[in-house]
Design brief:
It is a single chain. β14, α8 (275-278) and β15 form a beta-alpha-beta unit. The model has no long low-confidence stretch (mean pLDDT 96). The protein is built from ten helices and 17 strands. It is α/β, with parallel strands linked by helices and 348 residues long. Helix content is 25%, strand content 24%. It is globular. It folds into two domains: 2-144 and 316-342, Medium-chain alcohol dehydrogenases, catalytic domain (Quinone Oxidoreductase, Chain A, domain 1, Alpha-Beta Complex); 150-288, Rossmann fold (3-Layer(aba) Sandwich). The strands form four sheets. Strands 3, 4, 5, 8, 9, 16 and 17 form a seven-stranded mixed beta sheet that branches. The protein has a six-stranded parallel beta sheet with strand order 12-11-10-13-14-15, sandwiched between helices. A two-stranded antiparallel ribbon has the order 1-2.
Length: 348
Amino acid sequence: MKTQAAILVATGHPLAVVELDMPVLKAGQVLVEVAYSGACGTQVMEWRGDKGEDKWLPHCLGHEGSGVVLETGPDVTKVKAGDKVVLSWLKGSGIEAGGAVYDWDGKRVNAGGVTTFQRHALVSENRLTLAPQKLPLELAVLLGCAAPTGMGAVINVLNARAGQSIAVFGAGGVGLNACMAASFGEASKIIAVDPNPERRALARAFGATDVVDPSAGDPVAAIRDLVPGGVDLAVEASGLPAVMAQAVASVRQQGGRAVVIGNARHGAELVLDPSVFNQGKSLMGTWGGDSQPDRDYPRYAEMLASGRFDLAALLPERYGLEEADRALQDLAAGRVGRPLIDMGRIGS
């Protein structure tokens, strides 16, 4: 069987749309016909080479998607042919089957346990979750990364409670999901910080009570004007070390907590005034919002399907597979919050 994929051949160069030969399914692998793929900052970093030396080139890309199971390999019990599924980089129950290796005109093309910038993918059983019936596949794609990371940071890591105040640094796909979770959790103040005016407008549409333009002045001072003494909680979703420092600076003394979601460039360093810890503040990390797919995705799906927010506005731009490179360019430039690669779309 052959399939089409947008692969990374060399960092800093456009993606190549090529035809791949699919290997035989091995134990624990599932053949999925991908319907939609999201894209996030991780793919931008891989594409630009921001993660340092890439030892796996050429390789497939993408770690959040949705689709339909076509075939299962030996020992797979979690899903069956015909099931609609979410593809996610976060590991749930099931077999960890490792990555796949595709053939491209005699050359090896590597792939991890899940990849989604392709029409068909071999996926480890533990990277699949049954898609919720309440969400169409084009929206269920958010469960692959953006929702569990952003919502999970607020719910699982920060354990946000009603009445608390929160600042969200970075209003991309992950940050907007953090805003939604805070809104569902009845936060008293939800302050979105982003230099992009379109993203600030989106943040208001997705639950932010206030927005701050960090290019107009000190965002920490602006937050303290809105919440004297600092917010209870902060989410950093930009990947910039300077913003990570701002996040912890923005929370209140004696119990304020900040969590870092964003991925910094390879070699970057975070500089902090150590007095923030003497002030009783905490700086936390997370692995995908500490989300467990089988436990948490149904809950996130309920929030996404509630109708409270217009999710179409979060995925406003659709791209065909052959436009995957443009999707990454637009994401990197801040022209789109979350690109949606539609495998049924013919690119312009």
